[in-house]
TrEMBL record:
Signal peptide: none annotated. This is DinB family protein. It comes from Dactylosporangium darangshiense. Gene3D superfamilies: dinb family like domain, E3 ubiquitin-protein ligase SopA. InterPro entries: 5peptide_repeat, DinB-like, DinB/YfiT-like. SUPFAM superfamilies: DinB/YfiT-like putative metalloenzymes, Pentapeptide repeat-like. Residues 101-245 form the DinB-like domain. Pfam families: DinB_2, Pentapeptide.
Length: 266
């Protein structure tokens, strides 16, 4: 246990650090940036939350005695009607969700093509570039469908990109310096999405609840008996959320070279 008393730690960086059970009293966290942080069973008293931007999974959040998670979910569903489709209950619902994602991504890719190719490698606010986002979606399909559902222990393409906090694993690529062209990574992603589509279209209401055998060998997910439904739900979530992030960042990258404004899809 380390105690910091009357210390100036401005600009400090904490990476892969366990802070469970820590106490913060009379601490100034102005302009702090938290990414990939787990805040479970956290208690805040006497805090001042001013101009705070929170983006992530919000459940069981109580502010001044009011549980706000349900309000947030309802408002997001109102703003994004297709969001409800990403919580399918049956096989037909999964097929509808995937078809919806295909249409949404067509518009997002068309929007990206209107920018100079080099801009698609730019990071906005420290987030993944558009190309890196597509590379991560390759990884998501490989991890949760090719590996977890279909049983391939090492389905990785060299351009696959795991999330930054994932521990290194033998054979799993993580080349942050790669700069594939848009069409190159779309071709790889198209192959992975075709596999996902085929698996979804093979499902029945009963098979969605089938438990797959754990896949041994280094990689992600770790060996565990997942229901097919859970694996496919992860891919839906990844595709849906990362498209929203991509749209947000394309908006920040500005208009097309011709100066034509780009319509923003919230």
């Amino acid at each position: 246990m380390v105690e910091f008393q009357d210390a100036d730690l401005r600009g400090s960086r904490f990476r892969n650090v366990h802070l469970g059970g820590t106490q913060f009293r009379h601490v100034d966290m102005s302009e702090a940036e938290l990414r990939g942080v787990l805040l479970r069973a956290v208690v805040m008293r006497g805090v001042e939350l001013i101009d705070v931007d929170i983006e992530g999974e919000v459940r069981g959040l109580t502010v001044n005695g009011v549980e706000v998670g349900a309000y947030v979910e309802a408002e997001l569903d109102r703003r994004q009607p297709e969001r409800r489709l990403m919580r399918p209950a049956d096989a037909a619902g999964f097929r509808l969700a995937w078809e919806t994602l295909e249409k949404l991504w067509e518009g997002t890719v068309a929007r990206a093509r209107r920018l100079p190719p080099e801009r698609l490698h730019e990071s906005v606010g420290g987030e993944w570039s558009f190309i890196e986002t597509l590379r991560h979606l390759v990884f998501a399909s490989e991890a949760w469908v090719l590996r977890a559902v279909l049983g391939d222990p090492a389905p990785w393409h060299p351009l696959s990109l795991p999330w930054d906090e994932m521990p290194d694993a033998d054979g799993v690529p993580r080349d942050r310096e790669a700069r594939p062209a848009l069409d190159e990574i779309l071709a790889v992603l198209g192959e992975r999405r075709a596999t996902v589509r085929a698996v979804i279209w093979q499902q029945t209401d009963e098979s969605l609840d089938r438990t797959v055998e754990p896949v041994e060998g280094p990689g992600w997910p770790e060996p565990y008996a997942f229901p097919v439904r859970e694996c496919l739900q992860v891919v839906l979530n990844e595709e849906y959320q990362h498209r929203l992030y991509a749209e947000r960042d394309l908006e920040a990258l500005g208009p097309t070279p011709s100066g034509e404004p780009v319509a923003y899809a919230p």
